[in-house]
Each structure stands twice: as structure tokens, then as C-alpha cells.
Amino acid sequence: MAAQDRMEKIVSLCKRRGFVNSASEIYGGFANSYNYGPYGSELKKNIKDLWWKKFVNNRSDIVGIDGPIILHPKLWEASGHTTSFNDAMVDCKECKSRFRADNIVEDATGQDLEGKLEQMKQLLDEKVNCPNCGKRNWSDVKNFNMMFKTSMNTTGVCDEAVAYLRPETAGAIFIEFKNILDSTRQKIPFGVAQIGKAFRNEIVAGNFIFRLREFEQMEIENFIAPDCDWQSMFEDWLVLQEEFAMELGAKKDKLRRYEHPKEKLSHYSKKTVDIEYEYPFGFKELYGLAHRSDFDLKVHSEKSGEKLEYFDEATNQRYIPHVLEPTFGLDRSILVALDSAYCEEEVNGEQRVVLKFPPKVAPVKAAIFPLLKNKPELVSVAKQVFDNLKTSFVCEFDDNGNIGKRYRRQDEIGTPFCITVDFDTLENDTVTIRDRDSLEQIRISSKELKDYINQKIA
Questions:
Q1: Domain boundaries, position 387
Q2: Which residues contact 444 (CB under 8 A, 6 or more apart)?
Q3: Backbone dihedral region of 14: left (phi > 0), alpha (psi from -120 to 50 degrees) or beta?
Q4: Beta strands at 366-370 and 395-397: parallel, antiparallel or unpaired
Q5: Rounded to whole angstroms, how far apart are CA atoms 193 and 183?
């Protein structure tokens, strides 16, 4: 299937089945703002829970925090965000479309001129036509700060202070370093994890939930000794990031690594590698891993006057730790799970659309059907089965339509198991359980259902 066609089908399914839809639709929609519906929110929660269990609960060297979205503006001044968190912006004077200048220059000429505004403007005027209208009439190239600015009324009357919605989650971790160290008594190397929203006023957002202005990050700051073997730790984290993507359903051959060349590294970074995924629109970043040196703790220590150091009892040394930072985009993880799961296949001469999520990721684990809606005895037993299972995992009761239609609906939701209560159930207390992927059906005692499904989704 053509890549664009596949993407359109995924987006259509997401809206039809309550995974993701444009927000504020009754007011005409709001650009690049999306709502996670009943099944999308369950999928999102499952991915977050899987990540937290893997990287926090199952480890003794990583702890978690949940920091605020609005932080002291001095944090962003110290980190350089207020002055340098910029993208190059250019407008087409003919059709009024706005673009990120370095992206359209690189697409048209192959030259990467990030940060070089004058050279970008020259190439735009000489060689680059507007991707929207095809004309060449450009405004000046300007730096555009991507932070969302807000204000806080500090006195209750009129004295307002400028504040920002956080553009990343990492800042909250760095400024809490001392509190975390004092309260947990962790020994280096150790990490601090956080899941939370970040906000970036992107010049051009798009590709569904791939690039959003309001998005969610799952991030870890690993604090390490300056003289440790960080290269091996770096490789270990790359492997863990790839493993997590595959736990969501991504195929290994759709993942690749991209190491940022030295000339494109941030000034504080020793090494940065992206884990890229082959989306329907091509290979793009999924996760990132960066060695941030001691930049963050050092600059916040200098600007705040608070010593953000670590005392190593083994070596009797005091130092500012360096940081390895693996970042996982949650919205992009959801898109990868959807793309990896989406499948069209023919069954008994009929086309079916199915989301083949790994069972532990699937928003609904089991659906329970009475064979016939108009048979109270079947409906009653089916509801008993539902009541018994719903305390252990997310399941649905469905008696609307014929069995075939109910199967197709659950296939599109990605439900791994469908359970049918029929007349044999009334005789011997067994039910039919149907596997989503293989379509195999077996009969099993209703008393064994919970253990059977729990083993499958573990």
C-alpha cells in the first residue's frame, strides 16, 4: 500500500474508532491540536505504564518525579532557552504560508544552513520556490523563539511576571537534583525519570501526532561520574531504546540510528544519537540519546548560587556529575504502535482491518459477547463473565449486531481476545475464546479465563 494511503487510513481509523481526533471540532478545529479518545487514552496509558515499569519500577538505580509545567523563568534564562531556543522562520509573500527556513532550503538544495540566516535568505531568493504556491517571493529570515509565553499575576492587582510553559521536561529534574539526592540517597550512577507535557510553538507542525505544539515526553536524566566509561553506558541505552520501540510492536528493520555530526552538536553535547523509525512519511526521529556533559547542573549552580554537586564517598571527591539523557516521545510512540499494528488482510473472501497490538499495549484486552442479544440467559451469563474479568484488565461487553460485526469492531480496536457465551456455556460452563491474530478458537472453562488471558498479556 502507498505510504500516503496508509497514513490516511490510519488517521481515518483513529477518528472512527476513538483513538485520536482533531480537538475543538465543534468550533472548526484548532491547528495541530488532537484529542486522545477512549481507546487512544487507554493506549497512551498502557505505553506510559510499560515505560515506567521498565525504566523505574524494575530498576533500583532510577527514581521518578513529576515536576510542574510552569517553572521559575530564571531556569529558562539560565539554560539559554529565552535567547537561543529558536528556529529560522520565513514567509511566502504571495500565499502567506509560513515555513521553517532551514528545512525548505535543505529540501530544495541539499545544503544544511541551520543558524545561518543570511545564507538561507540568499539561497531562498536564488533557488527555492514556495512549496505551497510555487512562486519565489520571500520575506526576510528571522529567528523565532518557540517557547509559549504566559504571565503570572504576582500581587493580585496588576503586577504581572512573565512565565513560560516548559519547552522540555528535563529542567525540572536538574533544579531538583539536590532534593532528590538528599531524599533518596542514591549513589552515582543513578537516574531520574519523568513523564510529562512540554510545549513548543513550532513554526510548522504536522504529520498527524508526529510533531505537535503540545506533546508528552518520557525522559530520564542519568547522572554519571565525569571520568566513567560513558561510551558503554551510551550503547546500553541505545539498545534499551530500541528494545522499548520493539515492545510497542516496531520491527527491527524499521529502526535505525542516526549520529549527529560533530559540527551539528549542541555546544554542551559530547555525542547525540537519534533512534529513527520508518513512518509512512519516511525515516524520522523517534527517540534521542544525548551526552549533555555537566552543562545543566553547572549553569544552574552558577546562576542560582546553590551547589549542585555530588560527594563520592568511595573516592573522597566532590564533583558536578555529567548526564546521559535518553528521551522518548510519547505521542510518537503512539504513532509507531498504531503504524506497526495496522494491517489489512483477507479472511474467507472478506477484507478485514485489524490492529495487531502486542497484547500488553492493546487498549482493550478482551471483549465478551452473548451469542444472541434476545436470549436473557445468555446475556446474564455474559455479564457475569464480564464482571469477573473487568477487575483484572480492561474489557468490554458487546451485544450489538451479529457476531461477525462484533469481531470486526474489536479487530479495529486491537482487542486480542473475544469471548463468546453460547448455549454450550449454559450446559458445561465453557466459552469460546477467539485469538485476534490467528483467528483460532478454543473452548475453555469460564473459571480458567482470567488466568489464561493474564498469561497471554503478561
A1: 364-457
A2: 430, 431, 433, 452
A3: alpha
A4: parallel
A5: 15
Q: What is the pLDDT of residues 372-425, one digit of tens each?
A: 999 999 999 999 999 999 999 999 999 999 999 999 999 999 999 999 999 999
**Phi and psi, residue 215, nearest 5°:** -145, 175
CA distance 246 to 254: 10
**Residue 331 is placed in which grid cell?**
505521542
Q: What is the pLDDT of residues 281-336, one digit of tens each?
A: 999 999 999 999 999 999 999 999 999 999 999 899 999 999 999 999 999 999 99
- The 10 Å CB-count burial string (b at 16+, else e) for 155-189 is eeeeeeeebbbbbbbbbbbbbbbeebbeeeebebb
Looking at 311-417, list the stretches that DSSP marks H as alpha helix, in order from N- to C-terminal side: 330-341, 376-389, 403-413
Residue 355 in domain: no
Number of domains in the chain: 3
The model's pTM = 0.93
Helix axes 101-109, 117-127, angle to 10 degrees: 50
Question: How many CA atoms lie less than 13 Å away from 366 in the CB half-sphere?
Answer: 27
173 and 295 fall within a common domain: yes
